[in-house]
Known about the structure:
Distance between the termini: 32 Å
Number of helices: 15
Largest sheet: 8 strands, mixed
Strand content: 5-15%
Helix content: 40-55%
Low-confidence stretches: none
Shape: globular
Order of helices and strands: EHEHHEHEHEHEEHEHHHHHHHH
Radius of gyration: 21 Å
Number of strands: 8
Strand order of the largest sheet: 3-2-1-4-5-6-7-8
Mean pLDDT: 92
Amino acid sequence: MTQKKExxxxxxxxxxxxxxxxxxxxxxxLFLSKGMLVTVSDPMEGIEEKVKSYVLHAxxxxxxxxxxxxHIITEKELDQYxxxxxxxxxxxxxxxxxxxxxxxxxxxxxxxxxxxxVNAPSNALFLSSSSGITATKQSVKMERPERLLIGHPxxxxxxxxxxxxxxxxxQEEKIIKQxxxxxxxxxxxxxxxxxxISGFVANRLQAAIFRECIYLVKEGIVNVNELDNIVTSSLGxxxxxxxxxxxxxxxxxxxxxQHFLEQLSPGMVMSWNQQLQEHVAYDEETNKILLKQIxxxxxxxxxxxxxxxxxxxxxxxVINALTGQ
Length: 325
């Protein structure tokens, strides 16, 4: 289903972010950067300080990416646009958009959307950040399940461009177009996934690649740091500019993908068959190897913040280079 992409002017629109963890706080920063009025609903104690801290750190990053955040700079100004309400029913009462980032538990999400539907305006757009649970499974208790769509980002949403839009089985054209327009208005690269599948697309690719990463490290072929260097020095660069299909089309030389199929696909099929025979699991031995090497390469939990910050700097640099910012 091909959609004509339209964008929305989101200034002054009300959005409720359910769940104020890393994904929710990142979404909140992006929404705020577009002049939206944001309400965060999360029962965790101290969530206000955590979300505000994240947002105030993220807004300058958005400025580096060419997003106008000049109207929200100080914490005092932030309070005019960012609010908190632990009661979900109250939090969604006046929302134009709802972006859910609750724990990845199917039953929990089903109960949550039942509550949201009862309390939210009839025209509010329901969107889930779920990384794998389909809209069909989440909406089993809703009166109008077609209102719920997946809007799955890559972490962190305020930096990474992709959003996978995945409708449930009950597809309603008007609602799908609204979701596409919403994310386009945020400046996202929105891709409409045509069929529901567990894990959607990006995470299925990530899982398949990571399975091979685990195998190569466990077998002692490379260590964690070496594997990361291999990816960032080759496939990471190539796929950031071309993607897998275009890469192999170009890899076929003047004959393009036809030449690739003739010359390289038989060897790739042999590799697939071999990989299917290889056992990969997060067993005790494997986990011990991975944890030891990750600790040796990247330090402990005390290093996470610094690594996150460097990752964001690097990703922004790549995105700006690709978009000409």
